[in-house]
Amino acid sequence: MNYFKKILRFAGPYRKYGYLNIFFNILYALFSALSFAALIPMLDVLFKPEEKVHAEPVYQGISNLKDYLQDYINYRVTAYSGDDDMKGLVLVIGLVLVLFLMKNAFNYLAMYFITFLRNGVLKDIRNKMYEKIVDLPISYFSEKRKGDVIARITSDVLEIQHSFLSILELIVREPLTILFTILVMFGISTKLTIFVFVFIPIAGMIISRIGKSLKRKSDKVQKEQGEFLSIVEETLGGLRVIKAFNAESKFYNTFKKSTDRFFKFSNSLLNRQNLASPTGEFLGILVIGVLLWFGGKMVLVDKTLDASSFIAYMGLAYNILTPAKAISKASYGVKKGNSAAERVLEVLESENPIKDKEGAAEKMDFNTGIELSNVGFKYEKDYVLKDFNLKVEKGKTVALVGQSGSGKSTVANLVTRFYDVNKGQILIDGTNIKDITKKSLRGLMGLVTQDSILFNDSVKNNISLGKENATMEEIVAAAKVANAHDFIMDLPHGYDTNIGDGGGKLSGGQKQRLSIARAVLKNPPIMILDEATSALDTESERLVQDALEKMMQNRTSIVIAHRLSTIQNADTIVVMSKGKIVEQGTHDELMKAQNSYKKLVEMQSFSI
């Protein structure tokens, strides 16, 4: 129930719908019991016309309430019908129909209002999960498969609605229906009702034993669902490679193994769950059978119960079965929903280690430079950067070069605060970036990465991502700086053309120039370029490099370079190896020194 309480806090904004649901459920439960109790006078009219009540009965206290109500209804029926028994029958039938109509109307109204609560909670949980997913650090998703996260925000949240939130419909209605029904049953026959209660605990024990393993089985199902969604996500992302290497059958077999496991776990779960309904129904009918024997003995042998009361009593006893079955199914739902809630709450309650400290400052300008002072950083156990020191003065371009794994991209990740340093500090204008809000820090920076990350939207919306309410003139001007305007105008709908998932309708060079246009429009004082030309052909590289040079004018730039030919004009070139700086200077200075940088240049020249 701990998970249920945590999920229930999302119901707060919709509590008025909950109160209305409770109100109409109380009325439903009351009329549910009364509608069966009203059968007694109808049966009396049919089977005991000789026992008409001609004088208005006198109320003699709560102990005789049942007889008083029965005699009063008989008196009213007698007064209305006179000698015509059919008029009395029609009156009683009308009373029963009105009671059943009211019962079902209140049931509908109760379900109507709970719908807004259930769907509202579902919406808010999904919104909160998405907000959390966007807020969590990049490191969180390097440990989790994307498909598993997608499964949590879709199927797991839906499971919470089907299991936990369905209990909200039952939590008042079904217990009250049972309570009111039992009160009426006690009113008809105390002896018979006490006899029924001997069997209810036995039935409850049997039902509870069935549901004990449901959470464990449900957990397996939901984890496996995340697994095959991950396979689908990876397949769609790498379809070209899969086809190029004729690996379709390999991926199909991996997916098939996952769905086979899902099939097995789902069968086990559903078969255990499906056992609840027939077991509950059989136990209920067993109770009814025993009631027929014991109650029939009271009517036929002991003469302590009249036939019409006994028939109504049987209807009431059967009326308990439906809510009792619903409660037993709901208890299975809680066990099944526990697993889904655990997975959802694991995301919602994940702490983001990279957060604004209390009193963090808003920094809106950039004046002197960036400094990395004695920085040490590790992703897991081994340090990627060790005692790393670097200064980037305002208006200067600093290029980081070195072999793969030397720590170049890590520097970019730390300056943008996608990760926090383990040792040392990073300063902007002499202020530790941990003392600056993340939003204002990243507002000072533009980022162009090796993988052009674009979205399934129009060219215009992709360029204006970093600047809300950008004018069309500003978007076009940014595209011209990025050498993108000409190819955009050749697209079917120009700036309104949809570029497909991940910009799939564009070439690599076109995608990269859109990324540059996006950074230009944001117009930040600091630009970080992470191997922005490494994946391009020579012609595209020339256009992109020209765009980059125009963009970097009068800006402070940190360039992570794979192709050394692109950074020869940098103010400082920093050569890195195994997380440390091995040499730095201008291109000419480093070539004269004839150390690591010259070897890298010669290796690239030779390979070209």
From TrEMBL:
Lineage of the organism: Bacteria, Pseudomonadati, Bacteroidota, Flavobacteriia, Flavobacteriales
Ranges of residues in domain ABC transporter: 370-603
CDD domains: ABC_6TM_MsbA_like
Domain ABC transmembrane type-1: start-end pairs: 22-336
GO cellular component: plasma membrane
Predominant localisation class: membrane
Transmembrane stretches, start-end: 20-43, 89-117
Pfam families for the chain: ABC_membrane (PF00664), ABC_tran (PF00005)
Annotated SMART domains: AAA
Protein name: ABC transporter ATP-binding protein
Organism superkingdom: Bacteria
Bilayer topology annotation: Multi-pass membrane protein
Keywords noted in UniProt: ATP-binding, Membrane, Nucleotide-binding, Transmembrane, Transmembrane helix
Localization annotation: Cell membrane
A molecular-function term among this protein's GO annotations: ABC-type oligopeptide transporter activity
Coiled-coil zones: none
